[in-house]
Design goal:
2 copies of one chain form a homodimer. By secondary structure, chain A is mainly α. Helix content of chain A is 62%, strand content 6%. Chain A has 6 helices and 2 strands; from the N terminus they run H-H-H-E-E-H-H-H. The two termini of chain A are 28 Å apart.
Chain lengths: 130, 130
DNA sequence: AGTCTTCTACGAAGACTTTCGTGGTTCAGA
DNA sequence: TCTGAACCACGAAAGTCTTCGTAGAAGACT
């Protein structure tokens, strides 16, 4: 198959919708709107339009077999997150992932368990890699 | 002193300029343009306009005592980076800094030295925190 | 002084983002 | 069948981002 064409970086509003779809799984505009309108005052047709645009961009896939179309994220959460991190690293950290990691860690009080998890990941990287 | 008002998140083009100013220190439009135009085809007045807008937004400070105005970043690199990381964490990682760190680490082959540095930071966090 | 270069200011075009109103269609309930 | 509710498509407005052309002021050079 052809190499997956790079999808555009989601905008803020688009990311808000993606997060809902990653959490709920395939959903209708109504479901997404019900959830987001609890946090923010936003019209139904605004969500609809955004999700249509996202489908045009390739960010979402749409199942039109039912009257209420069902949307789902084209890419998995982790793939998009990786893309966003990579983008931020190159735009704001001069390409240094370590700087980002250090910045993130130092500006956050992590719990002992979280620290342990990160250590574990570091162990794996050191052990298995190369 | 009053609490520093939150500056707007820099856009991509603005970040490009900020990076130059953080690297070079206070600079004229000419200097910034000379450097950036080597990487990208961009007009002088485009840079000028952008830096004027950034000054209006409060992202830059301008010294007008000379004919060629001298611009510098209002915030230190680390402060802006922290803001951007926080923003990405909340918008794309559901508020979990650890998820971002894990994602960043797992998508990058870090060198042994880099891993060691991160470990050191984790040690400090565990030791000194609370 | 006259000319050429360099600078700032201004305005505006074009693209993108976010918002929502209107209109037409489909479906359920009276 | 008629009415109302829910849905989608469409268009457009308002805001932001990025771009650059033009004009005028300031300096440098001859």
């Amino acid at each position: 198959m052809p190499p997956a064409p790079q999808l555009p970086r989601p905008t803020d509003a688009e990311l808000e919708i993606l997060r809902v779809l990653w959490d709920l799984g395939p959903s209708t505009v109504r479901q997404v709107h019900d959830l987001l309108s609890r946090k923010r005052d936003v019209g139904y047709t605004t969500m609809l339009k955004l999700m249509q645009i996202m489908t045009d961009k390739g960010l979402l896939l749409r199942d039109e077999s039912e009257r209420s179309h069902v949307y789902r994220a084209k890419q998995k959460e982790a793939v998009t997150q990786k893309q966003l991190v990579k983008d931020l690293v190159s735009k704001a950290f001069g390409g240094s992932t370590e700087k980002l990691v250090m910045q993130a860690l130092s500006s956050k009080k992590a719990t002992a368990q979280e620290i342990a998890e990160i250590r574990k990941l570091l162990d794996e990287m050191e052990g298995g890699a190369q």
